[in-house]
Amino acid sequence: MNLSRPDRECLAHELDQFDPTLPLDRAQRPPVSWFLDPWMFQLQQRYIFRRTWQIAALQDGISEPESVCCIQIAGHPMVLVRDREGVLRAFPNSCTHWGTQLFDADCASTERIQCPNHRWTWNLKGELRIAPDTPDGFCRAGMHNLKSFPVREWGPFVWVCMDSDPPDFAETMGSLYERGSHFAAMEYAGKDTHDIHASWLHVMDNYNDGLYHRSAHPSLAATISPDYRVEVSSHFALQYAPFKQESGTVRSGTARYWSLFPNTMFNESGDRVLDVNVVEPVAPDRCMLHFYYFFAKDVGSSFREDSTRSSRETQGEDNVLCARIRGGLSLSYDRPGSYVPDKEAAVFRWHQLVHEHLLPAAYPPSDELL
Ligand code: FES
Ligand SMILES: [Fe+2]
After folding, report:
1. At a CB cut-off of 8 Å and minimum separation 6, what does 211 contact?
2. Angle formed by the axes of helices 301-327 and 200-208, to 10°?
3. Which atom in ligand 1 lies closest to the alpha carbon of residue 100?
4. Which ligand 1 atom sits closest to the C-alpha of 99?
5. Which of these CATH numbers, 3.40.50.970, 3.30.379.10, 2.102.10.10, 3.20.20.140, describes 58-160?
6. What 3 state SS string does 262-298 have?
């Protein structure tokens, strides 16, 4: 559904304050509304998070036939369902009768989907099979089947896109795509969640900012060469640098930090340590950052503990920094700010992508308005 004309004009006003075509040394950061305004936040959920591939769950949690797993995508309650033949689908966790929540457990096994309210019952393909007290042929009409959304299994995760016409998955993943089987072979070692009092976009700015690492993370900086590079592609950025440590230690080789638009990060230390971060926006100036830890199978427990502790320490430094960035802004103080050339190319790219995703809502093709 298109925005109303006043809403389109209002959004156009917010977007037109940012020029994505300028070179980095002359570009200005977006207005503060992109980071703090509740209405802009709703539009970002609708036009960015519901139209991009999102990590929904670990594959391990939904690997068995006839299993279900409750998830949330961009604020929407959803359910992953694997049928008897092993086919995985994503449905709204919502009955097609009154919208009652269908499942409330995290993960469970089941042979069917049954609404707790009037007992409408679907098979695991989402086809309505039983609807008590309804006329003959009611189920066969197919009008009350559950609508499935696109799903992919890549690396250790299940990914869902809430758009029925999703972006090409492999193209979105770029050079990361080839590493899927390597990541999938690593051992999952647990998850942390950080509650951050800042916009999801500030968290991504902070991550994509290759400049501040040396001052913001003194202990991390001590292990990584100052020869830090940032490469920006269509939907992702890669920051990388060699570790200073001698070869042969677990954390040796190259540190590679990929960010994938809009909200996912893969942090690889050498090829035996990986943590994956997902930013879940929950309010204009608040988000949850989920950390998933993975190690090569031969990495010992004391290294795992040290590594996890140092990830928490580094992220704790970032959480404080993000809250300080948010604390320095208000909607009435609308000075955009600038970018540091070279170092902040990935930060700028994220702002260009936010602009690119919201622009069609402000300026829809004229045939959509008829
Ligand atoms: S609300 Fe689900 S069957 Fe009526
Ligand atoms: Fe950081």
Report:
1. 340, 343, 344
2. 120
3. 1
4. 1
5. 2.102.10.10
6. CCEEEEEECCCEEEEEEEEEEECCEEEEEEEEEECCC
What residue type is 93 in one-letter code?
Answer: N
Q: Which residues line ligand 1 (CB under 6 A)?
A: 95, 97-98, 100, 115, 117-118, 120
Homologous superfamily of 1-52+186-364: Naphthalene 1,2-dioxygenase Alpha Subunit; Chain A, domain 1 (3.90.380.10)
Nearest atom in ligand 1 to the alpha carbon of residue 102 is 2
Burial of residue 155 (number of CB atoms within 10 Å: 0-12, 13-18, 19+): buried
Q: Which ligand is nearest to the CA of 219?
A: 2
Q: What are phi and psi of 17, to 5 degrees?
A: -80, -5
**129: CA distance to ligand 1 center in Å?**
13
Residues in the 5 Å CB sphere of ion ligand 2: 318
**Per-run averaged pLDDT (10 residues), the chain, 370 residues:** 92 96 96 95 96 96 95 92 97 97 88 96 97 93 95 97 95 90 94 96 92 74 82 90 71 87 94 94 96 94 90 91 90 82 91 97 79
